[in-house]
């Protein structure tokens, strides 16, 4: 099934998504990778403000390459989401509703997604040039000194994603592997 949804995310949109569904995401999302997550965690520990409100928002684990003329960003492929796993549960507990990356997540993140009624999307690795076409505007909003890892506010239109972990905790990486083994070992 393919769904068109808008960020910030609405609970009713998240609840209808199932692991394996295709999504075209539009709206406002934010980028943050390792260095930005570390800084946000330090700010939260000190009680300082963070660059944006996590509530109902989506973080894309991406650091874009420089934009070519007429484009908001250059190549915009996902980074390995597991690198943010030590920070993701506390950010989800603070209201984040979506994450975009590639690869498996830890048991702690998996549980935090389910506990908070959130969703983890995969963007296709190696398709950064294609994904960048969905990004219509990009603005650095924090940690400019981090270069490509600075936090950016993006406006996206019909960004193609796949639901990997849905709000009920179903995980495409687990179910697809079981289905594959069943189909190919039964022949």
Structure description:
The radius of gyration is 16 Å and the shape is globular. The chain has six helices and seven strands; from the N terminus they run βαβαβαβαβαββα. The mean pLDDT is 93. A hairpin with an 8-residue loop joins strand 6 and strand 7 (151-165). With 187 residues, the chain is α/β, with parallel strands linked by helices. Helix content is 29%, strand content 27%.
Strand order of the largest sheet: 2-3-4-5-7
**Main structural class:** alpha/beta
Helix content: 25-40%
Order of helices and strands: EHEHEHEHEHEEH
Count up the helices.
6
Main sheet summary: 5 strands, mixed, barrel
Which band does the percent of strand residues land in?
25-35%
- Regarding quaternary structure, what we see is single chain
Radius of gyration: 16 Å
Q: Count the E strands.
A: 7
The geometry reads as globular
Low-confidence stretches: none
Amino-to-carboxy terminus distance:
28 Å
For the residues shown, what is the average pLDDT? 93
SSE blueprint:
Layout: E1 2-7, H1 11-16, E2 22-31, H2 34-46, E3 58-60, H3 88-93, E4 98-101, H4 107-116, E5 119-122, H5 128-132, E6 135-142, E7 151-165, H6 172-185
Parallel strand pairs: 1-2, 2-3, 3-4, 4-5
Antiparallel strand pairs: 2-7, 5-7, 6-7
